[in-house]
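Structure in, sequence out. Go:
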């Protein structure tokens, strides 16, 4: 990716910032709590078991904020990819996003039950973590490079304009991204040439 994608407020920059924070949340909070749940045994007190279950439920309640990250990707980024006749990655990732949602929902539901099975809760939480980490890898190594190759400045501007309507996760609202004049002029010229050649429809 180029300098524009590394600028605060650019959608790629925002996606990467969120991914970093999501991974930190997993490593600093979810993973230690799951490990603690796995240490419980028959000699553990009811109070301790209930406390760990409550902690894991709180983790999953916070973890489901990742759905905001997925919603922005699905509703703002995937449509632009599809305009470039690229549909495979979005279909695969959409399915994987749904798997993560299901895993987090299952872990939350299990943790909320009376006398929750801590092993089952830990296993569901592990599945959620594995799914999220796998999706971050796909975003960083497949989706972002593909978008960087296909999207021009005007497309990125359209995405950035709509992002605040959906919101952000684990980060503060980023500053407004303003592309360089050179990038904006180049994208405008490209669109004008495509329009003149009949390659894009008038809106």
């Amino acid at each position: 990716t180029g300098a524009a994608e590394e600028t605060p407020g650019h959608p790629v920059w925002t996606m990467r910032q969120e991914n970093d924070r999501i991974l930190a949340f997993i490593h600093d909070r979810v993973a230690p709590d799951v490990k603690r749940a796995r240490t419980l045994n028959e000699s553990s007190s009811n109070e301790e078991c209930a406390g760990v279950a409550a902690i894991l439920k709180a983790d999953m309640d916070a973890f489901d904020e990742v759905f905001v990250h997925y919603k922005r990707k699905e509703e703002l980024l995937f449509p632009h990819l599809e305009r470039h006749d690229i549909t495979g990655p979005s279909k695969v990732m959409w399915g994987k996003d749904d798997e993560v949602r299901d895993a987090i929902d299952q872990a939350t539901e299990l943790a909320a039950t009376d006398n929750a099975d801590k092993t089952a809760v830990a296993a569901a939480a592990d599945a959620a973590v594995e799914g999220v980490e796998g999706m971050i890898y796909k975003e960083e190594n497949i989706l972002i490079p593909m978008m960087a190759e296909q999207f021009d400045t005007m497309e990125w501007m359209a995405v950035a304009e709509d992002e605040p309507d959906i919101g952000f996760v684990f980060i503060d609202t980023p500053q407004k991204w303003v592309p360089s004049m050179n990038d904006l002029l180049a994208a405008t010229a490209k669109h004008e040439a495509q329009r003149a050649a009949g390659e894009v429809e008038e809106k």
